């Protein structure tokens, strides 16, 4: 099995991510930071044993969700308070916009998501009762679907929210303290890529005043 070697780290001053080679060249005396959990990373030098390249790594006791063993905590998440009425609304909206939800998920998987996988995501969502979270907002549906599904083995990816999230409803109940971000983790390299969660699944009807022209 290939080791998971994160090759990128976040620089707190520049606000940018750098490859390990660039970090060693330009910032050898500074502390690299994980872009997801914001903890300081260590640097392990290149080793001829096993032909291992220089890379960043977390401390062994890290709680960073980019580590696959830590991601498993999402598997047990369930609504602490069920909202039957909102669940009906979220299911209805998702049913009406299945294509848009699919395309958003597909986009975050580099346009690589089969219909059968999408079906499995919906089945997994039903098993986890994600629709019943009190106050769930439609904006978050595709992102919760991605995280809840777990590891996309065909693509070698999984998705996580930030490390201080305790349950999915923190996304909409604690918007000031929880970033409006989702991270995609590569299961081979353990590198992470950050995405903003966008609220554009249902477009506003800017042209309702024009409808009379078509009668």
Write a compact overview of the structure shown:
By secondary structure, the protein is of the alpha+beta class. The chain is 29% helix and 13% strand.
Helix content: 25-40%
| Helix/strand structural class | alpha+beta
Portion of residues in beta strands equals 5-15%
Number of helices: 7
Spatial ordering of strands, largest sheet: 5-6-7
Oligomeric state as shown: single chain
Helix-strand topology string: EEHEEHHHHHEHEE
Instruction: Return the average pLDDT rounded to an integer.
Output: 85
Number of DSSP-assigned strands: 7
Task: Describe, in plain words, how this protein is organized in 3D.
- The protein is an alpha+beta fold.
- Helix content is 29%, strand content 13%.
- It contains seven helices and seven strands; from the N terminus they run E-E-H-E-E-H-H-H-H-H-E-H-E-E.
- The strands form three sheets. It has a three-stranded antiparallel beta sheet with strand order 5-6-7. Strands 1-2 form a two-stranded antiparallel ribbon. Strands 3-4 form a two-stranded antiparallel sheet.
- Strand 1 (8-11) and strand 2 form a beta hairpin.
- Helix 4 packs across helix 6 (141-149) and helix 5 (115-128) packs across helix 6 (141-149).
- It is globular, with a radius of gyration of 20 Å.
